[in-house]
Known about the structure:
Layout: E1 26-30, E2 42-43, H1 46-54, E3 75-79, E4 82-86, E5 94-95, E6 98-103, E7 110-114, H2 126-129, E8 132-150, E9 157-178, E10 182-187, E11 195-200, E12 203-208, E13 213-220, E14 223-227, E15 230-235, E16 241-242, E17 246-249, E18 253-257, E19 260-265, E20 273-278, E21 288-293, E22 296-300, E23 310-315, E24 322-327, E25 330-334, E26 340-343, E27 347-348, E28 351-356, E29 372-379, H3 381-384, E30 392-398, E31 412-414, E32 419-420
Parallel strand pairs: 1-2, 1-3, 3-6, 4-7, 5-8, 6-8, 7-8, 8-9, 9-10, 9-11, 9-12, 10-13, 11-14, 12-15, 13-16, 13-17, 14-18, 15-19, 17-20, 18-21, 19-22, 20-23, 21-24, 22-25, 23-26, 24-27, 28-29
Antiparallel strand pairs: 29-30, 30-31, 31-32
Amino acid sequence: xxxxxxxxxxxxxxxxxxxxxxxxxxxxxxxxxxxxxxxxxxxxxxxxxxxxxxxxxxxxxxxxxxxxxxxxxxxxxxxxxxxxxxxxxxxxxxxxxxxxxxxxxxxxxxxxxxxxxxxxxxxxxxxxxxxxxxxxxxxxxxxxxxxxxxxxxxxxxxxxxxxxxxxxxxxxxxxxxxxxxxxxxxxxxxxxxxxxxxxxxxxxxxxxxxxxxxxxxxxxxxxxxxxxxxxxxxxxxxxxxxxxxxxxxxxxxxxxxxxxxxxxxxxxxxxxxxxxxxxxxxxxxxxxxxxxxxxxxxxxxxxxxxxxxxxxxxxxxxxxxxxxxxxxxxxxxxxxxxxxxxxxxxxxxxxxxxxxxxxxxxxxxxxxxxxxxxxxxxxxxxxxxxxxxxxxxxxxxxxxxxxxxxxxxxxxxxxxxxxxxxx
Length: 423
């Protein structure tokens, strides 16, 4: 039923400048109590609403004719407070449609759960992460806003997006508590970034509760624009592997602005990586792009972990053409035998560790030669072996070749003395 309420309007995609024709939305309501609403457009059953989206007039055949969602007939599903459990997977949230919005009453007030969707397209890892609470297949202009998606029971993961299209997520929390799961998984054309997804003020919160592995956001050949969001993977077992709060495969194009990407684990025998690129069964990372600006990348593991905690680990094929630009981003990495900030010289990540009397103690795999800098402020003839300048400040750069430098403070090259520090 087409409503005449001028306030019932959908706006899809990013912010548009200029003037555009406003198309009134066809409104469906998912509420705990529909006694005061029209039975043609309201239900307390999530499965019935999803069927109504794909099969108009399935709620009541005698109601005025409705149309399938599309650019000229956007559909808004207005969701009230409460927890709504999807009890079957007859219909995904969207399949081969466009212009659908699911708007809740807030992340605390509205929760979508249940489901149990499997993958329909070939995927390196999404089949392992299945089943998912939410599935979207070959859809464009799909929007979720002001709600929580909660994985429960035998469902392992949060959201699955398959194929081409795009989506927008605003003030959404995706919560997963499972031994092997992911908050988000997408797959499509791994040779080109075939779908585009926007994130505004969102949370992905994954708690790995068993002994397996998991990730926060997993993508195969998709584009993501992430603004002001928090993607956090927490490993709560001593043996689980954090394959990244961001785990990126294929020809991904991911750009992170003003966000926190964190992997925090209790694992003592496996990996802790905030950002993981590629992997053992990955498609080539040809023409892949990752950029971060004004963000935080955090990888923290126990001090006695076998493997060091990591910031960004690039395991993509060495012949892959990549654009990896990490600018204006704060790193907090600690724990394990040999923690590292950046692994692989293709990650362009100039980084300042500040200044002081001694540089941070790091191992030879901490970063890439010349990428990290530190200003030592108390150099003298005794401390820095430089007789000409006396007390002065020296710029140090990270150099894994400085294996004979000061054993307390690791591989640093002194650009003033033109020697490894301590020699």
